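Hi support team,

I've been running sequence recovery on a batch of backbones for a student project. Most finish fine, but this one hangs at about 90% for roughly twenty minutes before it completes. I'm not sure whether the input is malformed or the queue is just slow. I've pasted the structure tokens below so you can try to reproduce it. Let me know if you need the job ID as well.

Thanks,
M.K.
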């Protein structure tokens, strides 16, 4: 067993040697490390090399890998049977746990992957409204369903694909893609298709084109536009849900601002490392799902008892101290990344949204009017002010001021224009020094409750050499 021989084996029998493209080292080069085990903040590869892990299974491992109490819950559930194909009380308990944290959710449908959750949300929105079209934002990833693969960020960004082969023109035509952070573009899309938009779907805080923190009032403006036009707002919290706070990104923003989506999707942390995801919302919307309503949705392994046990145990353990710790170590690591890059004169932006962060390479200065660099963004917020004016009384307006919007790329086009070629040498220097980052500049870095002083110390030690490698990088010719 070794990384090289195991990956050669995998490549013979799995396309690209992987079960999901983001795991391949396409954009950073080299051979993916074949993992043998994971515990706490560490992963061990087939060569027996242990590294500090900042992938965290792409988000689910909020508590760290193989938390003993989660593993015990899984073992106990497995001993009672792996799958029943019949309802269990644990599913209702998991729904209770979600509803307690995210009170606008009255009912939940459990599925196995985030993709299924967003697919179900889109079908439900179409079924409820009787309308065909969906508006999504360029650079937002919602899983690999046909309807939402256009300009999808994540692995699609790495492949430099506009979308995916195999998606029919008819399907693509039912998705309207607008730039992120551009309220006017959403308003224009509604105006161009009166009475035909079923839903706007947005990542609660985008983290698949790197992290882009929503500008203050952006999600609220989407809420108002959806209400004005009779469409549903689908807030995709697959990545942010139960990770950035106990009530996800909505808990950091929507609760304070007083808005709610019509549907919310969860994945990743809700399953604690096992395949659980969900779509939730008000009963009046959710009850359109079969068996109560006409929108069909099903799954042999949906609500799987072993997976649900992992999710329940994870949510029960994810208390305020866990979130405070993850917030703190994320800040320590992201500040250290920035300091290391500054020390080498590498222009960059650390992109933060709650405890999520990523690094974008390049320069983004505030524009002369104090807002930001690109003209399209400035016009977006002039439009947002008019949306606020037209909104229902009591809703919070955002205004055209943007001093609180961080500098850095704010949409997919800006993200893609960065000096992405600085990332591969940075990534490999970290890997060589014993720190595993997500193998793409477009992905968020994930800290966990298990990243203690020692693990964080190892990350900090690795950074100066990685920053030197980024400084020495040259663009491909
Ligand atoms: C915001 C968001 N939505 C949906 C998905 C799809 O989830 P899954 O990979 O479980 O299908 C992801 C996965 O990364 C995601 O980040
Ligand atoms: N941010 C993108 C993902 O988390 C996807 C993970 C995977 O497909 O393995």
């Amino acid at each position: 067993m070794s990384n090289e021989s195991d990956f050669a084996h995998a490549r013979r029998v799995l396309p690209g040697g992987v079960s999901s493209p983001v795991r391949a080292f396409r954009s950073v080069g080299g051979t993916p490390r074949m993992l043998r085990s994971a515990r706490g903040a560490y992963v061990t590869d087939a060569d027996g090399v242990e590294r500090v892990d900042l992938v965290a299974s792409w988000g689910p491992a909020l508590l760290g890998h193989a938390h003993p109490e989660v593993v015990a819950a899984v073992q106990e559930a497995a001993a009672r049977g792996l799958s029943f194909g019949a309802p269990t009380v644990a599913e209702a308990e998991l729904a209770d746990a979600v509803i307690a944290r995210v009170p606008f959710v009255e009912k939940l449908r459990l599925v196995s992957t985030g993709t299924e959750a967003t697919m179900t949300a889109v079908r439900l929105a179409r079924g409820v409204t009787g309308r065909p079209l969906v508006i999504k934002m360029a650079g937002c990833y919602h899983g690999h369903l046909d309807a939402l693969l256009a300009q999808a960020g994540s692995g699609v960004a790495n492949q430099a694909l506009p979308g995916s082969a195999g998606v029919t023109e008819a399907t693509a035509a039912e998705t309207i893609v607008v730039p992120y952070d551009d309220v006017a573009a959403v308003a224009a899309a509604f105006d161009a298709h009166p009475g035909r938009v079923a839903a706007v779907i947005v990542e609660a805080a985008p983290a698949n084109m790197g992290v882009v923190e929503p500008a203050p009032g952006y999600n609220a403006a989407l809420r108002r536009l959806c209400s004005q036009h009779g469409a549903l707002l689908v807030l995709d919290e697959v990545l942010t849900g139960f990770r950035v706070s106990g009530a996800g990104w909505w808990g950091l923003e929507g609760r304070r601002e007083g808005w709610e989506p019509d549907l919310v999707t969860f994945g990743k942390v809700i399953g604690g490392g096992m395949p659980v995801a969900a779509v939730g919302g008000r009963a009046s919307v959710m009850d359109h799902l079969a068996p109560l309503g006409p929108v069909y949705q099903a799954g042999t392994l949906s609500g799987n008892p072993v997976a649900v046990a992992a999710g329940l145990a994870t949510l029960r353990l994810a208390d305020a101290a866990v979130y405070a710790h993850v917030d703190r170590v994320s800040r320590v690591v992201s500040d250290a990344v920035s300091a290391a890059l500054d020390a080498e004169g590498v222009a960059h932006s650390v992109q933060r949204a709650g405890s999520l962060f990523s690094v974008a390479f390049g320069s983004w200065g505030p524009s002369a009017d104090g807002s930001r660099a690109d003209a399209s963004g400035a016009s977006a917020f002039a439009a947002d002010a008019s949306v606020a004016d037209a909104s229902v009384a009591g809703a919070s307006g955002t205004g055209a001021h943007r001093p609180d919007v961080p500098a850095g790329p704010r949409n997919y086009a800006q993200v893609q224009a960065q000096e992405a070629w600085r990332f591969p040498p940075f990534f490999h220097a970290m890997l060589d020094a014993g720190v595993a980052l997500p193998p793409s500049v477009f992905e968020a870095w994930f800290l966990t409750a298990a990243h203690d002083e020692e693990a964080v110390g190892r990350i900090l030690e690795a950074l100066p050499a990685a920053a030197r490698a980024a400084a020495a990088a040259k663009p491909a010719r």
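--
Follow-up from support: It reproduced on our side and the slowdown came from queue contention, not your input. The longest strand covers residues 197-203. No action needed from you.
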